[in-house]
Here is the input.
Amino acid sequence: MRKEIIAVIILILLAFTQKNIDIEDRNYALVVGMDESQKDNFKITYSFADLSKVAETKGRGAESVSASYEGDTLRDIETQYKRKQDKTIEYGHLKVLVIGEGLLDNKEKYNDFLEEIREKKDYSRNMLVFVSEGSASSIVRLDEEMNGLLSDHLKRLEERHIPTKTVTLKDVLRGYWEGERVKVPVLKANKNGVEFVSYEILPNRT
Here is the structure.
């Protein structure tokens, strides 16, 4: 696990160096959870690489931190985040998207979400997609209780315990607009972390 964490950190540092970007001006998103808020807005929970702890943990312990924001659109949320944090969200190494079951149940909001995601080219089409039993934020906020990166925990869970092909954002977008059947793993937060519990057939436009 420690080698995986160090590799991610090195990639982050190299990316910022090549672009001549001050690392302190960016927060580096690794996992994103999407929910519908009680106000019928989007609620996004981010898991960021916590680069401030690299030296003190030497690759061990908690290396990610989470934060939630609400807004009418994803762009509104990003603008709000930048205004409050005085930082820009960097999506270059985003690995996992978790969709809350409440967002799936609201077909209109889910459509709006996919419309926005389709236009966001900085969201990697190869990142893993999961559905959460309950809120996506309950999964993403597990990063505060784990040793290591949440994105690495979810990747290993997918490799070891989910007996089906990897589902990516590319699969989800294609399935929605082309009417294909996409079966996504469902995760549940528990006292020991996160577990795979079932599958969800995602809605499409038809």
About this structure: Residues 55 and 63 are 10 Å apart (CA to CA). The beta strands are 26-36, 42-49, 64-71, 88-90, 96-100, 128-132, 183-190, 193-201. The first helix runs from residue 2 to 18.
